[in-house]
Amino acid sequence: MPSSPPPPAPPSFAAAFRRLGALASLRGRHRVLHLTTLAFFLTFLVWFDMAPFARQIGDELHLDDGQLLTLSLCNLALTVPARIGVGMLLDRFGPRRVFAAVLIFAAVPNTVFATASSFPVLVLSRLLLGVVGAGFVVGIRLVAEWFPREEIGTAEGFYGGWGNFGSAAASLVLPGLSVLLAGHTGGWRWGIATVGVLSALYGVVYLFAVRDTPEGSAYHRPRRQGALEVTSRRAVFGLLVVQLPPLAVLGLVAYRVHDAGVLPRPGFVAVVAVLVVGYAVQAARTLSVNRPALADAHPPAERYPFRLVALLALAYFVTFGTELAMASLLPAYFADTFGLGVAAAAAAGSAFACTNLVTRPAGGLLSDALAQRRTALRILLTGAVAVFAVLSRMTGGWGLWTGVALVALASVFIQGGNGAVYAMVPLVNRRSGGQIAGLVGAYGNVGGIVLTSVLVFTGGDVRLLFLAVAVCTAAMALLTVWLPEPRGTTGTAAAAASPAPRESPAGMRAGSRAARP
Q: Could you give phi then psi for residue 3, rounded to 5 degrees?
């Protein structure tokens, strides 16, 4: 009989730091990590390719501020349900094919947007491009299939931090590229179209360059498709509650577009009606898929605490939601508070975003290094409370460099919190890992929309928003007391522990297709 693999070493900072050097490797699982990070980078590059050209597009196509706001909201809106839907597809068809499909699909609405001349076409294309923002979810499960439990936080943090840099790269690279390709007038069309083509080409490369799982590890799929499988009667009703906010926030987006004078009242009523019907359909599907859970028929070995999913979703609402809100408001905040010009204010505001390359991986590494992963999240949330409480008191008299330093420190805790959340998400339930990652990711977008909307109710007072963030992070830090420690395994751990499970012929055919390089 084959001998059992040795148990992993207990978590420690020394072991976590020793593994950092391996991230530079381009072999084995690290090769898969880098290829997948590049795929995520390209999806964010495409998703945010309108941002650096927004004013130019408005001037050339004669769009008013309400129409530009509508385009920005459309870019975010469908990402919320798309992350949940892509998670379902991912669990069913495997990450290799789904990520390749997202990358190739991105070129279609992106090209439509680049060639559009009418506002309705711009709206439709940006709505569809919101689906591309769901690509993040795919890599979360793929990385979890390739890395052991003791390295999962660092690997997922690297993937999230460096892939997320695609949004910053759009602002840094695309304006210069557009001028190089076509000059100033109309150059935005060429810059945007080019990244769509690159995304599609890389989608083809990715399809043949990676595998879903390492050799000897089966790709586990949910037994029932159509909704997230939970394992207890209480969890079914908890899931029905958790499914409400992602749809409700779409109603909030529709209201903001209506309030801006772009969406007429009948259109707003129609959107709300569609959302109500959509929730009813989703609830019926959830009840159908989870009939075994309603009957408490799942054996103890298969159960996982849905409370863990719900609390991680709330944590990501706070951490990633704050990141999205800061990205949209910090340049204007620095301009108003310290009297900076547009370029200087943008540079000061970038102090929050540019640290993501280090801070998100650091949050994952902290989670790997501590005996309890929830402790890492609690530490980072507590730090965020302190910094945002101070920011809520800041005035122009404090000095520009003090403001930049505080914003950079806030990013350490918030973006580190993102890494700590996704160090736990893949360990909840491997079989439904894509759907869980998608649900938690959707809550991050919900948080961004809700926190940004706070400014509407505070008269644009950013300091009150900082205070709201401090209150939310304090509440979440307290809730970590009830956060269960994730006990799941990753793909490599399962492969090492036992041979791949025997499946039906149909399941074997599906698994072999998913694993084909």
A: -75, 150
